[in-house]
Amino acid sequence: MLLKKQNLVEENLRELERVVMLKIVDQKWMDHIDNMDELKKGIGLRGYGQQDPVVQYRLEGTEMFDDMIEDIRMDVVKILLNIRKKEGPIERTETTKVTGASLEDTAINLVDGNISEKEGGMNKTVVNEGPKVGRNDPCPCGSGKKYKNCCGK
């Protein structure tokens, strides 16, 4: 019985580590891609400073990647060390259905062994109730301009 509980706790901890790592890597990778786009936009100015833009892009990109890896390591360790176990009954549910809940909520639920779906279910599709406005029709906002030159941009 004790071995079974210990095995369940280890399994929950591995699942917790996996979820935390995936969420952080996903977030940091998207930030890194955005940062690389910004670097690409501004790297051409290095030519004015008598620096080869290609070499500078490679050097700064490598440095940014190394910083991203270090940030991932630090954030994972910080979150895993700050997790507190909730008291209560342990219920085993499907752990692959992780919703858009915050990382800390997901981590705490994984320590307990239960993951609940986010309240409210899926997002609802927005439906516009007004008539469809053509591109050359007057804008419905009342500016007097054509829709394509006002709100239709």
UniProtKB/TrEMBL annotation:
Domain SecA Wing/Scaffold: 5-83
Keywords for the protein's UniProt record, in alphabetical order: Cytoplasm
Alphabetical list of Gene3D superfamilies matching this protein: Helical scaffold and wing domains of SecA (1.10.3060.10)
Name of the protein described by the UniProt record: Preprotein translocase subunit SecA
Species of provenance: human gut metagenome
Gene Ontology CC: membrane
The keyword DNA damage appears for this protein: no
Biological process according to GO: protein import
Keyword Isomerase applies: no
